[in-house]
Amino acid sequence: MFGPTAYLKFRLFSASVVDPALSPVVIAASDDSRRPCMESSVDMAGKLQATTRISQYTASDAFFEALWELGVTHCFVNLGSDHPSIIEAITKGQIEKKGQFPRIITCPNEMVALSMADGYARVTGKPQCVIVHVDVGTQGLGAAVHNASCGRAPVLIFAGLSPYTCDGELRGSRTEYIHWIQDVPDQKQILGQYCRYTGEVKRGVNVKQMVGRALQFATTAPMGPVYLLGSREAMEEEIPEYSVKPEHWGPVGPGALPEGAVETIAKTLAEAKEALLITGYSGRNHAAVGELVKLTEAIKGLRVLDTGGSDMCFPSDHRASVGLKYGVDDSVKTADVILIVDCDVPYIPTLCKPKESTRIFHLDADPLKQQMPVFYYPAEARYKTDAYTAIKQLNEYISSNETLSKKTESYSDRWEKLKEIHSKRLRSIQELAQPSDDGNYNVSYLTAAVRKAVPEDTVFAIEAVTSTVFVADQVQPRIPGTWINCGGGGLGWSGGGALGIKLAVGGKRFVCHIVGDGTFLFSVPGSVYWISQRYKLPVLTIVLNNQGWHAPKRSLLLVHPDGLGSKATNEELNISFAPSPDYAGIAKAAAGGNLWAGQASTVKELDELLPKAIEAVKGGVGAVLDAHLDGPHPGPGKHALVG
């Protein structure tokens, strides 16, 4: 009745009906490579079926191929019941495509996973992938999505969907209790407002195009997260193998300033008595830092204020540097021309406002701030442009315009004045870094000590909240890419962020993570330090232990400076962490004991322990130094050192 090939087709089809996990597979009689033997026994059919299953090509296989083909090198994963085909594809890819398959990083917590991808992407400029589990894993990403969005980090987030079939109609159909309770009306809306793009893989046949489109959005300025979904049935679908051309899926190219705008802005800056440039993200492109320096040296007297501190945008040792401030600085009040470049909050009008006569120009990848319902500054002109391209255009115009060049060369008195102002500022910063008479220390002294002790090219991952300005003043970053701040307001970024940064810079490049005590707890340290140990990513963590959340109190005093709360203790305000947790001990436990841990309350203890912590990291072991600011630690044990 049946020939050998027909019999096997029948057996495979019959098996797929009995077992929904198996789908019909057609074996061509001439395909000897996929038909090792044509014995017509049931056992042989089962063996052939197993062989065929291994060599099947599914939407999940194509998904990972697309990631690799389009430049994604790492997947940070937290897997679940929606990922059988994903897990199969990972296993297959790691066997068959060694060296041409994304590295898989297991992350016990979703927020840490996305923060790692975020940190890696910010350093390399290359998008990375995070894989999470249906709606609950998507929600587990938490504030990390806000941070990636505000921080302009290109990340592709993929989540499964609960199966949409119940009776075994397709491979991937519902097989578990949770497939019903995790089926929600619109999973995309959980992240939609934070993402540059959301989409669903509905069939496997165009999964690579869906990945390509998502990555185009993620990598086009302003960069940010994108969200793709795929049901089990869609990701299990068997499809013909195919490829895409990476060059067809690149980002939209950078925009330049119109010629008229270049002339207007260059002349306005050159004619200003006190020009100010305010930036926040321009340093993400390291080449933009050099162009900014050229601009300040072409227009002597132009100063640069970094507000937001997401990236090192301008060298702090340059005389034109005003330093890092969060939207409040006297330079804003006195400037007669302000050029805003890639910045979300140039100044806070209720605390620091320019003069009515000040002329303002705004250059940004997103000048309208399309994800902010309320945003307006009195700029006379706004341009959607790339910071590096625009600043380079201004430099080229000034250098080629003889009249303008001669005019700016006459500003030697302004140049000398900037040197005087900058030197005075550095002296005042140095004065803050002094220990108290009783042998304790503040955040300025601590950060200055760290800066002196670590290598010059150390990359700092910062999440110091109310202490950020003090930390920035003492670190004084000068090398592009050596200062990376969260950029958003979702506390907890820096734990995973620092690991992603370390993964990106690799080797012996030193990474120092400076974090507030409250933020340390937000970062899910149990997951962070397990990952650090598992993947050998040693980082020096400095915990700024001021025994609580100071940010809520600062917010209170800005609105109610003389209210009841202004006279209340931190305990009464419910922002105290006394008695303080053993932060270093928490990290050490998560690392299975393989981590240097210490606590320092005095200058003497700090001087003793900081070098040991640094040496541990250089030796390949992570270190956490719990630094108790402005006074002795109220809790037990001052020296919880690793043996």
TrEMBL record:
<dbReference type="GO" id="GO:0030976">
    <property type="term" value="F:thiamine pyrophosphate binding"/>
</dbReference>
<dbReference type="Pfam" id="PF02776">
    <property type="entry name" value="TPP_enzyme_N"/>
</dbReference>
<dbReference type="InterPro" id="IPR012001">
    <property type="entry name" value="Thiamin_PyroP_enz_TPP-bd_dom"/>
</dbReference>
<dbReference type="GO" id="GO:0003984">
    <property type="term" value="F:acetolactate synthase activity"/>
</dbReference>
<dbReference type="InterPro" id="IPR029035">
    <property type="entry name" value="DHS-like_NAD/FAD-binding_dom"/>
</dbReference>
<protein>
    <recommendedName>
        <fullName>Pyruvate decarboxylase</fullName>
    </recommendedName>
</protein>
<dbReference type="InterPro" id="IPR045229">
    <property type="entry name" value="TPP_enz"/>
</dbReference>
<dbReference type="InterPro" id="IPR011766">
    <property type="entry name" value="TPP_enzyme_TPP-bd"/>
</dbReference>
<dbReference type="GO" id="GO:0005948">
    <property type="term" value="C:acetolactate synthase complex"/>
</dbReference>
<dbReference type="GO" id="GO:0009097">
    <property type="term" value="P:isoleucine biosynthetic process"/>
</dbReference>
<comment type="similarity">
    <text>Belongs to the TPP enzyme family.</text>
</comment>
<dbReference type="GO" id="GO:0009099">
    <property type="term" value="P:L-valine biosynthetic process"/>
</dbReference>
<feature type="domain" description="Thiamine pyrophosphate enzyme N-terminal TPP-binding">
    <location>
        <begin position="58"/>
        <end position="189"/>
    </location>
</feature>
<feature type="domain" description="Thiamine pyrophosphate enzyme TPP-binding">
    <location>
        <begin position="467"/>
        <end position="616"/>
    </location>
</feature>
<dbReference type="InterPro" id="IPR029061">
    <property type="entry name" value="THDP-binding"/>
</dbReference>
<dbReference type="GO" id="GO:0005739">
    <property type="term" value="C:mitochondrion"/>
</dbReference>
<keyword id="KW-0786">Thiamine pyrophosphate</keyword>
<dbReference type="GO" id="GO:0050660">
    <property type="term" value="F:flavin adenine dinucleotide binding"/>
</dbReference>
<dbReference type="Pfam" id="PF02775">
    <property type="entry name" value="TPP_enzyme_C"/>
</dbReference>
